Amino acid sequence: MHTNVDIAAPAKRLRRFSVMARWCSVAILTLLLTSPGRGVAQDITPAQPGRYAAPYDQSRGVHSYAPLIKKAMRSVVRIHTLKRVKVKGKMQLKRASVGTGVVIDAGAGLVMTNEHVVAPGKVWAVEPTDQKPLPAQLIGADKATDLALLKADLTNIPAIKFADSAVLEVGDLVFAIGYPFGLDQTVSSGIISGLNRRGFADSSKEIRVEDFIQTDAAINSGNSGGPLVNSAGMAVGINTFILSKSGDSTGLGFSVPSRIAVAVARQLRQFGQMRRGVLGVALDTLTPESAKALGVDVDSGALLTQVRPNTPAAQVGLQVGDVITGAGRQLIESATDFLNFIRLVPANEPVRLYVRRGGEALLFEVALRPLGGRQTQSARSSTSPISGHEPSHVFYGATFAARPKVITPGAGASGVSVASVQKGSLAHSRGLRVADVVTHVNRQPIGAD
Question: Of the candidates 228, 257, 274, which is a domain's last residue?
Answer without folding.
Answer: 274
